[in-house]
Amino acid sequence: MYLQIRRISWLSICVMLLVSLSFSPHLTFANETVQPSIEEELMEERAPGFLPTQANPPQWAKAWERAGKPNSLLREGNPQSVQMLPSYIDQMDDVIESGIEEEKYPGAVALVVKDGTIVKHEAYGHALKYDEDSALLSEQEQIATETDTIYDMASITKIFTSVASLQLVEKGLIDLDEQVASYLSEVDESNEMTIRQLLTHTSGLPAWIPIYTYPTLEERLQAIYETDPVNEPGTVYVYSDLNMILLGKVIEKVADTTLDNYIAEQITQPLGMKDTMFNPDASLQTRIAATEPQPYLDRGMVWGSVHDENAFSLNGVAGHAGIFSTAEDMAIFSQAILNGGTYGQAQILKDETVTEMLTNQITDESHLAQGLGWHLDRSWFMGAMSSPFTAGHTGFTGTSFVIDPDRETIVIFLTNRVHPTREAGSINPWREQVVQQVVDAIDQHPSKNGLR
């Protein structure tokens, strides 16, 4: 498809020309391959420019210069207290209920934070509604969604893996521009992909391979290590699970511990995220949102263990999928990012690392951008909040979160859209509408126009 080029200033043209002379080859964007467990993104083929490595981030990234920002702790409050119109927040109920009525997802939890204040935290529908044959359960057997329902976060796991890797960068144990092979001897030295390219999905690796079809754990890992790039590293953007699986293995090698232990000890426990974990204990099953049957793996209804087949085949712990969490825990994590890497007495990243992490790494065009592990400016789920500095991610199971540093706002929308089947269709219109209600609640408030 042809890109509709936006009007840009002569200054921007000069910058793009200078940069294009400095970086080669040109980066292109591949349409994301939709595999059984890969979240579909709306991608456009385009001829991008580049951002050089800079000591100072570009002007539009200043929203992520968080030094000096308040270290806000979450508290409950009403929309009026943070200059939001409550009518729009209330209308979120109708938006979310409409998705249940149209059978796009059986249940959901929504949570909205503005200026550190939780102005919305509601549960809808059911966490468990169908049996392993995809038949409707009796009302007595169904389990209603609660505000503390635990969701399989799917690819949002990638965000935790990214933060973990950047913690090790801060400690000088990982170099973003070092080859992956220098950390993992199992990867051939001829593969020149770097840690930064894993984080920005520009490593050249394919989007997905079915490692769960290999009979042993050793063979599954070997299949990943031996997968050849399908593009020259640094030239094509392809959103790939393999990038984050490899990054998880780098973390394990460098930190000399398992990925789940590292994330627990260095991220979730310090932040007080008590309901965030890999491989939830069986005692938590009734609090967990069910996903779908996987008879081809002899799993029955997947409920309480990771939905992603490849992550399941890696014993439930992988860099691309496997984390379970709640809306409240995700709010704590998101607020820590808004605070510049701190929450209360815990610091998970330095503020300058947060700035770099959420500065566009691969293109100077505004409608598609990529941070270090984070999606930026993705209108298909960020909706009206989409901008070059709005950050977040989605998960195939039906989860998403958006952080807008300009509005100091967090929108978390968790569903189990794959219960009882992944074939129900995209929930992106509902993701966008939920965000739209929040934006309207802020932007339509009289204070926005100087009125009181």
Q: What this model shows, in words?
A:
The chain is α+β, with helices and mostly antiparallel strands and about 450 residues long. The protein has a single domain, classed as 3-Layer(aba) Sandwich (Beta-lactamase). The chain is about 30% helix and about 15% strand. It has twelve helices and 16 strands. The protein has helices at about 10-20, 85-100, 155-170, 195-200, 215-225, 240-255, 260-270, 310-315, 325-340, 350-355, 380, 430-445; strands at about 30, 75, 105-115, 115-130, 145, 150, 235, 275-280, 325, 340-345, 345, 370, 375, 390-395, 400-405, 410-415. The strands form four sheets. Strands 2, 3, 4, 5, 12, 13, 14, 15 and 16 form a nine-stranded mixed sheet that branches. It has a three-stranded antiparallel sheet with strand order 6-9-8. The chain has a two-stranded parallel ribbon with strand order 1-7. Helix 2 (about 85-100) packs antiparallel against helix 12 (about 430-445), helix 3 (about 155-170) packs across helix 6 (about 240-255) and helix 3 (about 155-170) crosses helix 7. The N and C termini lie far apart (about 45 Å). The model is unreliable at about 1-25 and about 30-55 (pLDDT under 50).
